[in-house]
Amino acid sequence: MIYKILDKKDYEDFLKKLIENYDFYGPVKKDAAVHDFQKINDFQKIDTDFKRTTIAPAKKIIYPPVEILLSYDISDDIKLNSKVQSEEMILFGIDACDVNGLAFLDRFFADEFLDDFYFQKRNKLTVIGLDRIPSETNFSLSLGKEYAREGFDIFLTDLKDRYFVRVGTEKGNNLIRRFANTRDATEKDFADYDKYMDNYRKSFKAKADISNFYDNFEIIYDNDKFWSKTAKDCFSCGSCCLVCPTCFCFNVRDDMEINLKKGNKIREWDSCMIPDYGLVAGGHNFRKDKENRLKQRYRCKLKTFVQRFDTYACVGCGRCIEACMAKISIVDDINSVKKEVSV
Ligand code: SF4
Ligand code: SF4
Known about the structure:
About 35% of the residues lie in helices and about 20% in strands. Helix 8 crosses helix 10. A hairpin with a 5-residue loop joins strand 2 and strand 3. The protein has two domains: about 1-65 and about 90-200, no CATH class; about 215-250 and about 270-340, no CATH class. The mean pLDDT is about 95. It has helices at about 10-20, 95-110, 115-120, 140-145, 170-180, 185-200, 215-220, 225-230, 240, 290-310, 320-325, 330-340, and strands at about 1-5, 25-30, 35-40, 65-75, 80, 90-95, 125-130, 155-160, 160-165, 180-185, 250-255, 260-270. It starts with a strand and ends with a helix. The strands form two sheets. An eight-stranded mixed β-sheet has the order 3-2-6-7-8-9-1-10, with helices on both faces. By secondary structure, it is α+β, with helices and mostly antiparallel strands. It is globular and about 65 Å long. It binds iron/sulfur cluster (2 copies). The site of one iron/sulfur cluster has 13 residues, from helix 9. One iron/sulfur cluster binds next to helix 11.
């Protein structure tokens, strides 16, 4: 890791140069309540003045909600076309949660089977993170995900008159050398950065007691009364998965023309919370009850990947809490598991 300082007066110039030279994605204000990560051609459009992470997860830039994997034409000879859009891109302004979310997806899409569609774009993506004060629902501190150690090329922390810059990769270092007017960080800069991080960690309001969750979850697993109560208000809408920076499930379907000669193989995000997810040929549904679906979601997020990758498949961003019309909260449910088992 290399540590640098970017003075505030040089910040605009740095970003303008990146916008000129790359496909640049960053936070844009959509309306009073919503920011989104969008392609930006004008520096003035960048708006980093939002408290919570934007509701659309940044993963959509490289893992879009709908994506054509293959176009085919079998009219005469068989013609197949499988192109991946892969321009050099910069993603600016994502916080530590989203960086950790990307780092999780990097591991998932390289595990067992290397997902070329993901990595052709990911390898051309430069990530510039930006620290921010957490929203009311952000509980990443409880999961140890409030700080990004990997998954970014450059990470900026606002120290009022200057940015503390962590450079995580050679790609990030080249970008800094080429486009930014920086200096080396001094002892005073490190001391101010430590002070910022102390205050940042103290500012988390949402807290989940995840201690012993791994074992407690198994104890509570067959407690139908607990899960009926927990999932009682769920509409099975799937919104919690669609906003999640770490959810990776997708479906692949064929979209064919009526002559059955031409078509596209399409991948689109799926959600384990919707009733059809577990439906198989013959009409059997492996998870037809919403209680089982919610239970499975928590198991996947908080247990399965502890076994597989030694990490949670949740970064504690709190988006699913904000997106849920039924006010189901993963923080409350983690705490309820603990309470129920402790009684
Ligand atoms: S938990 Fe909430 S967001 Fe998720 S499926 Fe149920 S109602 Fe929808
Ligand atoms: S499960 Fe909820 S809190 Fe965890 S990463 Fe996904 S959206 Fe964020």
